[in-house]
Amino acid sequence: MMRVAMVLALLLLSGCASAPKNTDNSCAIFEQQSGFLTNWRRDAERTSTEFGIPVSVLMATIQAESNFEARARPPRRKLLGVIPWKRQSTAYGYAQALDRTWDDYQRRTGRSFARRTNFSDAIHFIGWYHHQNHRRNGIARNDAYNLYLAYYAGPSGYARGNWKSDPTARRGARRAADMAARYETQLKRC
């Protein structure tokens, strides 16, 4: 019985690996997150194969959203300038997926036990979401800039061009595209 409990505990913890130390280097990330229970490279490659989104784009999206922090959340607003209050949004986890969007993903993919704090689930969500934007908005699967804009603005917001007047969205998309290019170069050497 004790052995079963230990195995279950290890399985639960396997998706909650600590953030990699060098998030600017895809090879270092994969090296740090490779072990008996966790293998981020395998998870990224499986998602890439399933949805046709390059590993570099998937990883750059996570880097831009959470910097590989499993429990990342937006900061809390301050009431009267000092009292911690509500958060700006329900974004959470590696993918910074909103509650409603995550619920939709779980329902549409049948992955009802997927968790936003589990790398394998989060990268699968990002691949699925980018694929939806590829199909709905005609964005090329390797276009990290526009895939990120659609990720940030949502499929409808992207189609309406909401991001055009949002410098934060454009800066994030540029950062994600630059990181995807860097990761792609690195992945060829490791």
Automatic annotation (TrEMBL):
Entry annotated with the keyword Signal: yes
Q: Which InterPro entries match?
A: Lysozyme-like_dom_sf (IPR023346), SLT_4 (IPR045795)
* Keyword Signal found: yes
Specify the signal sequence span. Answer: 1-19
Ranges where the Transglycosylase SLT domain occurs: 6-190
Provide the transmembrane region boundaries: none
Q: Print the keywords alphabetically.
A: Signal
Q: Which Pfam families match?
A: SLT_4
Indicate what this protein is called per its UniProt record. Transglycosylase SLT domain-containing protein
